[in-house]
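Ticket reopened. Same input as before:
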Amino acid sequence: MIRTPLRPLARVLEARDNGDDPALIEAENKRLRHEAMRDKARLRAEGRLLVLGAMFFCAFMTIGIRMGALASSEPEEPRAAVAGNPIIGQRSDIVDRNGRILATNLETHSLYAHPQDMVDPEFAAAELAHIFPELDEEKLLANFTGDRKFLWIRKQISPEQLQAVHDIGSPGLLFGPREMRLYPNGPIAAHILGGASYGREGVASAEVIGVAGVERFFDAYLRDPANEGAPLELSIDLTVQAASEQVLAGGMSIMNAKGATSVLMNIDTGEIISMVSLPDFDPNNRPPVLTTGDQSDSPLFNRAVQGVYELGSVFKIFTIAQAMDLNLVNPETLIDTTGPLTWGRFKIRDFRNYGPELTTTDIIVKSSNVGTARIANMIGADRQREFLNSLGFLEPTTVEMVEAPTGKPLLPRNWSEISTMTISYGHGLSSSPLHLAAGYASLLNGGTRVQPTLLRQDTVQTGDRVVREAVSTRSRDMLRQVVERGTASFGEVAGYKVGGKTGTADKPRERGGGYYDDKVIATFASVFPADDPQYVLIVTLDEPVESSGDEPRRTAGWTAVPVAAEMIRRVAPLLGMRPEVETLEPIGVTLTSN
Amino acid sequence: MRGVLYVFAALAVIGLGFWAYQENYKTQQAIKDTRLLHAKIGAAHERINILRAEWAYLNRPDRLRDLAELNFDRLGLLPLMPDAFGDVKDIIEPLPEILPITNPIDVNSIGPSNDEDPL
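Engineering reply: fixed in the latest deploy. New output:
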């Protein structure tokens, strides 16, 4: 580039010749140069401004167009970067402890109508009434020809019905997908599962919600898509549950009982292996809730969890165990059993007179109310209350069902001395069979508290200590003797060393005023095997009568015990327990260790 | 030198543009495939679910019990009772001796043998 000189020699010489000031030439040239520089800089700045403006314009246009597009378009799920599994969005299954299905989902269809699209409403109404006999043809026709633009016809239909409706060929009859909760085993474990129904409903889908039992308790878990369809594993064993229900139903009809319940619980983990309440229902088709009368007569009523009863003599072992734990008695201590024991205006009697005194063991074996009441007197109200609280008898159970809080034990308003004495043999305090199962498990597993649970557990519960281990062993020993030579002699099952305690409690009258003479709750609380306890089984029959003899027999020893024994005979092999039969000749191989 | 750089830069821009274009379409294709696969997996899940439900329904304890009773003549199935457990000493041991073979038959996999000793 050739620079224009500020003082060109030719012009300077010329100016000198003419007598002009050469500095003017320099000034002139400087001015020209500055002007050129200024023009160039302005041009550049203007260009930059233009580019900047264009950039801003483009940026704002992009944002504006994007915003407009987002606002005016249908929302769409981002499929490229979705976390987790987008497919399994339905309600989780419920399975038993071995993975067998207790509740699952089935794709069905719902049927709805758009009457304005119908060509021949009369024909459609007639055909629909033909396919679904419970529909009223005239009502349908009135709906189809009225002002309605939309109506549900059926909430769920089977594939055969779908095809039949499809064959009607009416453009106004439409189907929507519908998920249905299915309980493939029918009434088995009905009370535990509860049932499901529809929540908010739309044409394209409907919300399945649990209405009772674990379905309701774990509703949020079952609906949580984050589980990716992982099933809810219960502690129930389907085979054992089915066998228990069969045995209990048979026992209930033989003993002419109006209701029955059983709870089988693992003594260390607190897992409920089977829990039956009869009469039961089919959760696929839940009966309506009773609007009049006693709710406990409804098949929906779960006797094992919701039913609180005075369970009778099965409580005696708690009194004796506490007395042994406090070192007040030992199994051989002799206790005065002369009756009747009079306390104020109350008289405590035994079923028959057992003589002037019995050992503590024999009080349990023969089930003496008088002896137990005397021992309870030694313990006192406060300590008894505290002990029963530590076994969970003063609060509702914590089992994972919505019904659990309704099974709240009924306690005496004033825990007086007479209450202490009656509670010691199971009267004056009402609790559910599940409470009793948890209480027996806590007492007999070595003496640590067990909370009942319906979820499969892999570890043994380590609860608070309730009684010393030695007391637990002695209690088991006493219960074993009840079966060997006491009131529960029908409870012997060869090879399983059953131990247990019977309880026969008169039913209180509904309107107050004492007890019925001919209505009892018969309970057998058992543990097996007694020398290495693994399971606790509670069987309770409501108003049983055994009428094979000359006069009707209602005591638990004649009613609940044979049913429980049959149940153990059926269920123990299913639990993989081998009967220990004493062999006459020793087996050839003897295992030894140093 | 500078010119070469410009040319390379321009070529790089063209190349990257082409690559981005291709990647864009590949991604869209992959998303489309995924959607299709998801639909297929969903349908398969549904089928499996129905089969599982049907399996559970057919294996419900009530039905199995009825079937066992109906076919008692042929199968002789009874509920599992405590006497079903055997004992180790009930197993016959040692196994009874095999009777001497009186009519041996030559069997091999390469056809009938000839009389020559293979060794």
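Chain A has two domains: 94-233, 239-574. The domain at 94-233 of chain A is CATH 3.90.1310.10 (Penicillin-binding protein 2a (Domain 2)). Please confirm and we'll close it.
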